[in-house]
Amino acid sequence: MENPKDWIKAVEQTWVVRFPKQHLATFGITNIDYYVVTEPIYQEVDASKKETVIRTGRVHAERPTIVTPTYAMNLEGFSSEASEYFRHLAREFGPNSPGVMYQYKNEPKGMEIVSGVSNEVAHKISKDLDQRNENMGLVMVGVDEYWDVALLKFIYEYTSYSISHNVSEFQSRGLLDPQSGFDGVPKAAIVEIERLFANAERGNSTDRLKQELDRWGLFRHYEDRFLALFRSKRGF
Length: 236
What we know:
Strand order of the largest sheet: 1-7-2-3-6
Distance between the termini: 66 Å
Strand content: 15-25%
Number of domains: 2
Largest sheet: 5 strands, mixed
Number of helices: 8
Number of strands: 7
C-alpha cells in the first residue's frame, strides 16, 4: 500500500469475529489472547492460492488508573501540543476532574500460514475458542500489511466497551471523590500513595512513591513522612 491513507481503508476492512466475553478488569490486569487473521499480500498477485495468515499474541491491559489534567501534564512522553490540551481540560473541567487512563502492552507470539479463506479460518478459530471456554480470546479479520492497526482498533473499541463499567466500579468505592485537605485530588490517588508508602516502609524503593507525589503535586503534604523513611533506614 503506497497511499499513506490506506491504513484508513484497512481499518474499514477490519472486523471482530469474536470479542472477549468480559470487561477490562477494574482492579487487576487483563490478558487477552488474540488471533489476527489476514489474507497474505502475495495473494493479491496469485489469487489461485487460498491461504490465510494467522498472527497470535497477547495484549496485557494494566489496571485502569484514575488521572486528572494536572496529573497528565506531569507525565513524560507527551508533546507540547498534548500538554496544552491537558491545560485546556484543566481550565474547562477543573485541574482535578477525574478521568481514567488505560495502558496496554502487545506481546506478539507467532505467525503461521494455513490453507483456506480468511473468513472461514477466523470462524473456525472462534468456534474452537468457544468450545474451550476461552473467555478472553479475541479473533479479528484484518489487512495483512496493517494487521497491528486491526489490533489498535480492537483496543479502542474494547476500552469504550469497558469504560462505563470501570467508572461505575470506581464510583461505587468512592475512588473518584475529591479528598478534602489534599487540594481535591481523587481518593484513588491517596489510596495508591498509601500503598506505595507501605511498600517503602517494607524496604522497597521510594522512586515510584516520589514520582506519584510529584505528579499529583502532593509532596508538600507528605514531605515529613517521606523524609522519615530515610531517617529510619539510617537508624535516626
